[in-house]
Design brief:
Radius of gyration of chain A: 20 Å
Distance between the termini of chain B: 42 Å
Low-confidence stretches of chain A: 1-6
Strand content of chain B: under 5%
Strand order of the largest sheet of chain A: 6-7-8-3-9-10-12-11
Radius of gyration of chain B: 24 Å
Largest interface: A-B, 44 and 28 residues
Structural class of chain A: alpha/beta
Mean pLDDT of chain A: 82
Order of helices and strands of chain B: HHHHHHHHHHHH
Number of strands of chain B: 0
Largest sheet of chain B: none
Number of helices of chain B: 12
Distance between the termini of chain A: 30 Å
Helix content of chain B: 55-70%
Helix content of chain A: 25-40%
Shape of chain A: globular
Oligomer: heterodimer
Order of helices and strands of chain A: EEEHEEHEHHHEHEHEEHHEE
Number of helices of chain A: 9
Chain lengths: 308, 303
């Protein structure tokens, strides 16, 4: 569950100095301010931070899905040796879903209400691999549903006949339909109740393990992150302020923001006083330096507190 | 873990096609469909059993009342008018012609509406800007006034030509409605997911989005069909319709010109009016029936 053992683990994704701005009538909002990180083969990286810290925008930028008024100002995103930001629209379409896929936030409306599950999964497969005989497709869809622990008859159902957790698992099945290298899961369990959250999270982890793919898990639930990910990157105001193996981060959080984030997890054993920070999120329109990350332990990098 | 998976079988039994069986349970839709169906049948069966040549001038005795009145005869059960046309034959040929106007106007305007509405709504940007300005402008034009001008220029007019003239002005409404629906649909998660998963724009528009809009499209189609008939009948009642084909509107025009009301020949204007009333009520019931299917909140508690 920690970093890959071998000396030079293969990088699946390399993000360097990524900057995303949103144009607003009252100035450019710097949503992602020079973020850089790597994801290794088979690894799960957690991306945490408060709402508006830029974690979803980072993910969207990796997928090249930033919509106007947002735009990727600069940076480098290399997926399996392909420079994502330099791809033309056609090639991009090929790479998305074939190599990198998204499990969206809120599965509730990520499925087309008037299409059977079978057709929705088939669409993704056929778009990238061409028309296929019905029997092949059917077997494939059965396998995928089985992988996410859904009975085969779900294929013939419509989304409204499924529960929230089942829908989310259908989304997982759709995301893994092709032989890919990276899954981005954007708060995949946020709209679910805790028991279902757990089932979905376990399904996700199991599927990931079986397929040997890497995953970026975006979320703000530190408890869930602690159980699911190998490394955590903490984002604050558009920057990564701390990145470390999950154990190290929880054992010795270095950055003040990380410390507060971990302290905010309620404990059943003690009643902690509620600390409400006086500080507001800084004005994201202000240009600010990208904090330099300093290594405090192997693989444990922290930004200087003063920089943020 | 397997125990945690909810069993969907319980809901599955009655689920498939529930939405579609429900359509047939909507009384307004059934009633409307029956009314339009009756008119269509009238056209089909009437042609088989009744001699449509009787719709020609001077093919029958003049000014006969319906058969149940003094002087009426079963040879002309609905009577005749003052130039010797048989009323039943007029209705048998006129009703389908009127429905055809509705069909053509409906098809043309809904096709243009789908094309323009989807293009504008989904693509956005300058295509949307152009389409929006054009349709907004078209909506403000007083259609009948312009139709009167056009029809009085086009002398040799037949049913299809007239339908097309009416359709020129009927696309703006559907375009606006469809564009608005596409705008909200575009932001739905599944449309975004379809875009991410690499589906082509055409597939996204017509495979992913359009099925979701079917009830709207159907209601919009029926709405513009009846609107088209209304405009066509309006032109005909002013004497601007086809001169040779006895449509319902033209019959009303001749009735007005022949002072049918003053002369007490109610069957002359009454028969085509009744058919038109049935057509409009039928279309209206279908539209609100479809509306109720598209928007469950309109459904009353009377089921």
């Amino acid at each position: 569950m920690s970093e890959p053992e071998n000396a030079t683990p293969r990088k699946v994704l390399e993000v360097k100095d990524l900057r995303v701005h949103y144009a607003t009538p009252r100035g450019e909002v710097i949503a992602v301010n020079g973020v850089g990180f790597d994801v290794y083969r088979g690894e799960t990286l957690g991306l945490v931070g408060e709402s508006g810290c830029g974690k979803s925008t980072t993910a969207m930028a990796i997928l090249r899905l930033v919509q106007p008024p947002g735009r990727i100002v600069e940076g480098q995103v290399t997926l399996d040796g392909t420079d994502m930001l330099a791809l033309g629209e056609r090639r991009l379409r090929d790479v998305r879903w074939q190599k990198i896929s998204l499990i969206p936030q809120g599965s509730m409306n990520s499925l087309n209400p008037v299409m059977r599950i079978r057709d929705q999964i088939a669409d993704g497969i056929e778009t990238h691999q061409g028309r296929q005989p019905r029997s092949v497709l059917k077997a494939r869809i059965g396998e995928l549903l089985d992988l996410v622990h859904l009975p085969g008859r779900v294929a013939d159902m419509y989304p409204h006949e499924l529960s929230g957790g089942m829908k989310q698992r259908v989304c997982i099945a759709m995301a893994i339909a092709l032989d890919l290298s990276l899954i981005i899961a954007d708060e995949p369990t946020s709209a679910l109740e805790v028991v279902v959250q757990r089932v979905v999270a376990e399904t996700l982890l199991e599927v990931k393990g079986r397929l040997g793919v890497s995953m970026i898990l975006i979320g703000h639930d530190m408890g869930l992150q602690a159980q699911l990910v190998d490394r955590i990157a903490v984002m604050y105001a558009g920057n990564i302020v701390e990145i470390a193996p999950v154990k190290a981060l929880f054992a010795a959080p270095q950055h003040p923001y990380t410390q507060r984030l971990i302290a905010s997890v309620p404990s059943i054993r003690e009643r902690k006083p509620l600390i409400v920070s006086e500080e507001r999120t800084p004005d994201l329109r202000q240009p600010r330096p990208t904090p330099v990350l300093r290594q405090v332990a192997p693989g444990h990098l922290v930004a200087e507190a003063a920089d943020v | 873990m397997a125990t945690l998976i909810a069993d969907p079988g319980a809901t599955h039994k009655d689920a498939p096609g529930r939405r579609w069986t429900m359509i047939w349970l909507n009384r307004k839709l059934i009633a409307g469909g029956l009314m339009i169906g009756a008119i269509v049948l009238l056209g089909i069966i009437g042609r088989l059993i009744w001699d449509t040549d009787l719709a020609r001038v001077a093919s029958s005795p003049l000014n006969l009342p319906p058969f149940w009145l003094e002087g009426g005869t079963l040879d002309h059960p609905l009577g005749t008018e003052n130039s010797g046309r048989d009323m039943l034959a007029l209705i048998v040929t006129g009703a389908p012609a009127t429905l055809r106007v509705g069909l053509i106007v409906g098809l043309v305007s809904i096709s243009l509406g789908i094309l323009l509405g989807f293009t504008g709504g989904y693509l956005g940007g300058w295509p949307d800007y152009v389409i929006r300005i054009l349709s907004d402008t078209a909506l403000t034009i007083p259609t009948l006034a312009i139709l009167i001008v056009i029809s009085s220029y086009v002398r040799e007019i037949d049913v299809t030509t007239m339908a097309l003239i009416v359709a020129i002005f009927a696309w703006a409404g559907p375009t606006r409605v469809i564009r608005a629906q596409v705008l909200t649909l575009r932001e739905q998660g599944y449309v975004r997911m379809a875009r991410i998963s690499g589906l082509s724009t055409f597939d996204i528009m017509f495979k992913e989005m359009m099925p979701n809009l079917l009830p709207y499209l159907a209601a919009s189609f029926v709405g513009s069909a009846s609107g088209g008939i209304l405009a066509a009948v309006g032109l005909e009642a002013l004497g601007l319709g086809p001169q040779r084909i006895p449509t319902l509107g033209m019959t009303i025009y001749y009735a007005l010109e022949g002072s049918a009301i003053l002369r007490g020949m109610w069957w002359w204007w009454g028969a085509p009016t009744l058919i038109l009333v049935i057509v409009f009520i039928g279309f209206f019931l279908i539209t609100i029936g479809l509306d109720e299917i598209a928007n469950p909140r309109l459904r009353g508690g009377d089921k």
